Amino acid sequence: MNAPTELPIKLTSFAHGGGCGCKIAPGVLGEILRGAKGIVPSQLLVGIETSDDAAVYQLNDEQALIATTDFFMPIVDDPYDFGRIAATNAISDVYAMGGTPIMALALLGMPINKLPIEVIRRIVEGGESVCTAAGIPIAGGHTIDSVEPIYGLVVLGLVHPNRVKRNSGAQAGDALVLGKPLGVGIYSAALKKDTLDTELYGQMIASTTKLNTPGRTLSELAEVHALTDVTGFGLLGHLNEIALGSGLAAHVRAKDVPWLPRVRELAQQGYVTGASGRNWAGYGQHVTLNNVDETMKSLLTDPQTSGGLLVACAPSTVGGVLEIFRADGFAQAAVIGELAKGQGISVEG
User: Is residue 313 among the annotated active site residues?
Assistant: First the structure.
């Protein structure tokens, strides 16, 4: 039995995709951005060069502005939950740069002639609730009448220029720590087929609405060399960005990766998103799989919506990093591999 929605509207039926699974495939995106040029002032500390989570612009010796935006179509049918997930996902990019969010702007596109105003209002209220939890206002935004429901945020944050955590600063020998369990895309595929029960739906919502607040504290550790969050390109996709940006090889132990309950079982039953295959097509040439079956491959490329932080840190500080995660309620944070000299990603089953 599927988790009940507050209103008799299936939001996911209005969209061709959902959550971060809506992202343009990494290979296609690379082609779109190939050769992109523009003004690059010296104050722009982070731009598009390594596909990082947000742009960072230095304001003065003590402050840098983080700017990001994220939006997508519904991943769940409950409008309030949809708003919460989208807002949590957008704010995560600020935490992934090591910053503190200060303000948001709402982005809202809705099929006004198809969705009741009360449903749209609940989406906005869901986003507002997460912003309140993060301690930031929604200070404005923009709305359009669109064919599919779309919601998200522009989020601004602040960070000390010396504490910016890029996805390209990893060092050989670094340990890889993942903050949240994987499997959101698998759950969303099951939800669309009405086979995700109430308990697992609750697990999905708890994970996707949990703010990645450890990023602020991790920024204070010099031994944390790189930071990103795992979203639409899956674990291997975002790890590939760290490896390529840092000029290193990555090794992942699949047995150490944390998973949401029953995710493997659901994947074996065929509840896999199309985005998983598109992800592999985009970066699979960089990955070597050892004793990894098709189910595990799908899990490692599963698009995460509002996924966890992925940290590259010196081995000596792993205990401190795990303590930071667990102090904020991320009980399943785990060491899943390491980085080394070389190139590409190897996964051991």
Answer: no
